[in-house]
Amino acid sequence: MTFVQLIDYETTHDAEMSALWEEWLRLTEGKRTVTREVHGQDRENPTHYVDIVEFPSYEEAMRNNDLPETRRVSERISGLCSSGPRFVNLDVVEEVTG
Prior knowledge:
Elements: E1 3-11, H1 14-27, E2 36-41, E3 48-55, H2 58-65, H3 68-80, E4 81-91
Antiparallel strand pairs: 1-3, 1-4, 2-3
């Protein structure tokens, strides 16, 4: 079953956050279990972001979260947030495309 994690946060450190994301991608190449990621910015509040991260399963998401690289980068990201990050863990029960 597909699993989706929403990451909701606010930051004024856009460039640093992007650099950390790129660093994480580089460090976890061949190890990460993320199958898709969407990065969204709130139109009404430009410091508010939501990332939608998809995994093959809850177990794979937890394996990804347990990577030492994920833990290190996550701590640094948290330090750049003025609010959050708040995580919402969702089992996908229905998916409609098109």
